[in-house]
Amino acid sequence: MVDKKILIVSTEFSPFTDIGHLGRVTSDMSAALRRAGVDVRAVIPMYRSISAKLRKDAKLVCEHEQTVGWRHFHCKVYEAVHRDVPVYLVTADNSFEGAKVYTSTENDVKRFADFCACALSVIKAVEFFPDVIQCHDWQTGFIPILVNSNEGALQLEGGPTPKTLFVLHNMKYQGICSRYALFDQFDLSSEFISRSALEFYGEVNILKGGIVFADKLVTMSESYASEIHHSYYGENLEGVIRARSADLRGIHCGIDTGRYDPMTDKTITANYDYKAYKASKAANKSHILKKLGLSTEKGRMTICFSAEILDENKGIDLIQFVFKDLMEMNINFITAYRWGSAMGEFFASKAVEFPGRVAYTKYGKELSETAVVCGSDVLLRPSRIEPCGEKHQIALRYGTLPIVRETGGLRDVVVSYNEDTNEGNGFSFANYNAHDMLYTINRAYRIFNEKPKVWDKLIKTAMNTDVSCDRTAEGYLEVYEEMTEGL
User: CATH fold of 278-467, please?
Assistant: First the structure.
């Protein structure tokens, strides 16, 4: 057993909330830490949207009156266990009774301020005194602020003050609100509302507060930790990041290779591993093409563009710019998504314009994401910004070669094929440029059709790439050791 106690605070934790990458990351990371022998536990809100079964299985362990600033409300703490990790689900009167996990920033500032205060109160309520509180994204940025305030000291009274680790998932989302709204939430002294603390162009910025007051900072990829020092990625907080540079580390965020395993995945047509994949991968491709009504012509490369939600950071503008050129190639093009958005209308229209060659589909229970990915030859991920990313890692795991832009988590994992050394596990391009992307797609297309032995070697290398979240846990263990040295 590793002699560390870690409390993870997050607004998402799969399977209780599974609306995006955050929920899977916190859940998978917690399980990996538990496997490494860490006494890790998690705190999340008890949303109404959590399934009835999961809510029923959670047992009430305590309840108490909570004070936040001038307000008083009732807090209940429930406990569930997922993959051997105790998960505490907290209520704060009716803060989480709405249908949505996230609403508006103004409303969420209040809701998650209450949640963070409750999360701190759980420490005494369940008598679990962590060495480190690990906070994820701006919604938990209140935790480092509170720990450094008189109000937080009251919540933690009677036990040791834990260190705080703030995990930055995406600098774009910051929790900006009026300074009056924050004072309305907490009884904070005026020193917290200053340029060196929470002040942000006349308002307050909760993400900035987390960055300023946390003991250590982590990003979900090594490259993103470097990128956010610069204005293109820093979202107006690059100066604050540079000031905390010595306390910032990037840790590769892997995936749950037990969940994403082509040998055991029940949602795909035929299972396989890197030793014998050809027949099964061909069967998966045939199944997906027929299901989506796409051409099964031999030698036609199938490109998959997969995303949780189609947004402006995924490189859609690059694809739009050269889509006509792509259709002049002998390819199928699949766009798979989980949550709809207006940006999907382009792909929907192309599916109508190019029947039998372009598909636009929502993945879910009937058609899994892995079924689409493993039924494709390549995964296209030309992101403008990619703080972490799991799609390219899933693709590698299933022997679908990624074509990515060299940024963030994509750059950390995908090694572009080198024709001189015959090494690589995919293809990449550096500049955010449509024609650079098109050139790289053409390069992959040529190797797919003309050099089957090279393609075979690339697939085997891809499937043997270490993308496990167990490696992620090792990085966090090193950070915990640094943070608690001498305690």
Answer: Rossmann fold (3.40.50)
